[in-house]
Amino acid sequence: MNSETNNPSEELAFAADALNEISSSIRRVFIGQESVVNDLLRCFVAGGHVLLEGVPGLGKTLLVRALAACFSGETGRIQFTPDLMPSDITGHSIFNMKDSKFEVRKGPIFTNLLLADEINRAPAKTQAALLEVMQEQSVSIDDVTFQVTSPFMVLATQNPIEQDGTYPLPEAELDRFMIKSLIDYPDETTEANIVELTTKGKHSTSLNVDVIEPCVTIDEIGRLRRTTTLVEVDESVLSYAVRIVRATRVAPGISRGASPRASIATIAMARVAAMQEARSYVIPDDVKSVSLPVLRHRIALTTDLEIEGKNTDTVLEDLLSEIDAPRS
Question: Considering the entire predicted model, what is its pTM?
Fold first, then answer.
């Protein structure tokens, strides 16, 4: 990659190339699921966190490891269980008998990409251990505050089918996630490709991210994030994003609408979508392309709509079709 310049067009060209290289590298091992990879990459560059919903065995851990391999980042994984304690996530102080003083042992949260697996299997008190770091990029252990390594992202997973022994995520925590992305079963052709690639010439049943060569540095990740500020958002496009979010608060069938944090997330994600095409401005289609992942976990449907078999995505799609986009 070229060194950083002050030329906006060159920075946008760098960003588009870098995003394309990262995406291509991830897809070497994470087959299919184009929208999930897109969601993850946009959220990562926008500095957000991802809630990933899907049944086990669809490659969520592989996705995190593949992204980390693209910039030689560190990954951590926490399996959330009912008996998990907040200190199991953040770390704790322990008394060193030899030196007669307390010392801090940092938890798995001190990493670049943290996979919080089946986050809804731990009670709210344990889930709350993530709130500070997701918002402030810092962790408090016994009144001492530590900064986490940059870049930092939480990718939390939950199973949409098995609900026994789970705890609903508090609204305050849900709102901390910039997006919720849905990972579904692959189609037949994609699944056949996965099986062939995974089992060909080896006995292992998992893909190895060692085939991914780092394509960007940690410094260049920072450069990508700074480049988002070069993407202009016209007043009419910004108004369009805000109108979509505000419509969720008054639409029939929605019992809880999205907060202003959703409007901020929409613009942040739309800027990265524009950067992927080396565009210096956001268009309405960028806003529409990120609206579902940004909004689907921030709204709640009325009981009547749920009985009718409606889901958040279909309700949001209907809402988007009713809101006029700016034409120029």
Answer: 0.90
